[in-house]
Amino acid sequence: MKVYAVTAAAALGWARGAIDDETLKAASCLKPEAVFIEWLDDLTEYRELVTQCATMAAAGAVCLVTRTGNPVVANHLAKWGCVLTAKDNPPFEPKGRWLAAPDAFRRWIGRV
Predict the structure, then answer these.
(1) Are 69 and 94 in contact (CB under 8 A)?
(2) How many other CB atoms are found less than 10 A from the CB of residue 45?
(3) C-alpha Rg value of the chain to the nearest Å
(4) Distance between CA atoms of 47 and 25, rounded to whole angstroms?
(5) Other beta carbons within 10 Å of 27
(6) What is the average pLDDT score of the chain?
(7) Dihedrals phi, psi of 100, to nearest 5 degrees
(8) Chain centroid, CA 76 distance in Å
(9) Residue 53, Cα to own-chain centre: how many angstroms?
(10) Could you report the per-residue pLDDT of 28-57, keeping only the tens digit for each?
């Protein structure tokens, strides 16, 4: 699972489905405003991901966007306050784009 530091505007555009993954990756920045986890397929690398996200938060990132197709991961994201913002390939829910707004993002990285 790859983690990218991206601009907040691009992250929000991706969460709405307005831009694709490659456009979001191209919006990477040295001073992170948001975190993009390209594909959160399972929870095996979860601790490492949270640690990477916490490091980016310390550098300025305030939110997170990710995609999952795994119902266990989707339930976990929802439990921490993330919201499903766009569905990819409906009706195969919960495959879609998720957003952790600032409050949810702080709670999520607070686990480290």
Answers:
(1) yes
(2) 14
(3) 13
(4) 22
(5) 20
(6) 90
(7) -105, 105
(8) 13
(9) 9
(10) 998 999 999 998 888 888 888 889 999 999
Cβ within 8 Å of residue 48, ≥6 positions away: none
pLDDT digits (tens, 9 = 90+) for 52-71: 999 999 999 999 999 998 88
Q: Which amino acid is present at 109? A: I
DSSP secondary structure string for all residues of the chain: --EEEE-HHHHHHHHHTSS-HHHHHHTB-SS-SEEEES----STTHHHHHHHHHHHHHTT--EEEEEE--HHHHHHHHHTT-EEEEESSTTSTT-EEEEE-HHHHHHHHTT-
Judge residue 63's burial from the number of C-beta atoms within 10 Å of its C-beta, 0-12 exposed, 13-18 middle, 19 or more buried: buried
Residue 50 structure tokens = 């949270």
Asked whether the beta carbons of 2 and 38 are under 8 A apart, the reply is yes
If you search the block for the tokens 């266990």, which residue do you land on?
Answer: 72
Q: How far apart are CA 111 and CA 88, in angstroms?
A: 29
Instruction: Tell me which amino acid residue 60 is.
Output: G
